[in-house]
Amino acid sequence: MPEFPSWPIEVVNARGVTVSDVLVRIRDVLNRSVSPMETAVSGIASEYFRARTRADPREFAQGVKRMDFLGPNVFFLGLSRAYDGQDRWDVHFSSSA
Q1: Residue 72 and which of 15, 30, 87, 94 are 20 to 30 A apart at CA?
Q2: 73/67 Cα distance (integer angstroms)
Q3: How far apart are CA 90 and CA 66, in angstroms?
């Protein structure tokens, strides 16, 4: 998500990285709370935070999470090798599957 803060996701498994390892790690990273400075870069994150937490005061108390930056793009489309030639992959999401 180039317009948002960079959140590196490192996946490690001594027996070999599985698809499950990757998906669980993406979920864990997106479920983290963000700093007020990160929240300030996206009005949409605040909007989706309010919608996500409206019915659950416990979730509201945890604050904005990285997943809120996805907005309506809640479907995981996959990974692609980075275009800049670095040894990394980009995660892709969409509002429709």
Answers
A1: 87
A2: 10
A3: 16
Q: Which of 97, 50, 63 is nearest to 78 (CA)?
A: 97
Q: Using CA atoms, how far apart are residues 11 and 85, in angstroms rounded to an integer?
A: 19
d(CA 11, CA 18): 9
Give, for all 97 residues of the chain, the pLDDT tens digit.
555 667 889 999 999 999 999 999 999 999 999 887 777 777 788 889 999 999 999 999 999 999 998 888 889 999 998 888 788 888 888 988 6
| C-alpha distances out from residue 20 to 6, 12, 17, 25, 75, Å | 22, 12, 8, 8, 16
Domain coordinates of the chain in residue numbers? 19-94
Q: How far apart (Å, rounded) are the C-alpha atoms in residues 94 and 86?
A: 24
Distance of CA 54 to the CA centre of its chain: 20
